Amino acid sequence: MRKDFDPAQLAPNAFYHLMTATVVPRPIAWVSSISRDGVDNLAPHSFFTVASAAPAVLQFTSVGRKDTLRNVEATRQFVVNLAPEPLFEQINATGADFPPELSEFDEAGLTREPSLKVRPPRVAESPVAFECELHSTVGFGRSTVVFGRVVHLAVAENVLDGDHPLIERLRPLSRLGRDEWGTLGEVKDLARPAYKSSGAL
């Protein structure tokens, strides 16, 4: 037995909570940006994924017109920092609705690290930073999907095995429903099978 929900018959906020509780876990784009006035912004966005590998493009969604979106539209640059478990409290703190003239870096006690190819700074405490230039945006009602072309990737050496980032060292956080967050948990390793035709040659 299932219970049915029609998005057209529910308030948008009600269906939002259903979606975020069932589309799980969701990786977090911890996006740093900079305003026209030079104020650094940092905010977590849990509608986030890879849009393309070649060219390398990441995407995240701004629900409503938040400082991150306004900054990216104004400067056309941003950084996606990995959201790791040891920074759980700071990541959550940067989700507060600070006024635009305050920087979440300062409010959360985080360290700015200069980026190599874009103006917005990286989060020095985060092990991974994707420096991005705005590719395009697409609007859906109150939401805006932001596509960023990756122009540089910086990964901390202490999370690498050669050139491969180790998941147990990255320890990424994820978002679940309500105020719930997910940690890495058990990792299972299973190779993808290859299809083999049963026909004789």
UniProtKB/TrEMBL annotation:
SMART domains xref list = Flavin_Reduct
Keyword Flavoprotein included in the entry's annotation: yes
UniProt keyword Flavoprotein present: yes
State the Gene Ontology terms under molecular function. FMN binding; oxidoreductase activity, acting on the CH-NH group of donors, NAD or NADP as acceptor
In Pfam terms, one family for this protein is Flavin_Reduct
Cofactor(s) annotated in UniProt: FMN
Q: Could you list this entry's UniProt keywords, alphabetically sorted.
A: Flavoprotein, FMN
Q: Which InterPro entries match?
A: Flavin_Rdtase-like_dom, Split_barrel_FMN-bd
Tell me where on the tree of life, at the top rank, the source sits. Bacteria
Q: Where is the Flavin reductase like domain?
A: 21-175
Q: Which PANTHER family match?
A: FLAVIN REDUCTASE LIKE DOMAIN-CONTAINING PROTEIN (PTHR33798:SF5), FLAVOPROTEIN OXYGENASE (PTHR33798)
Family membership: Belongs to the flavoredoxin family.
The molecule here is called: NADH-FMN oxidoreductase RutF, flavin reductase (DIM6/NTAB) family
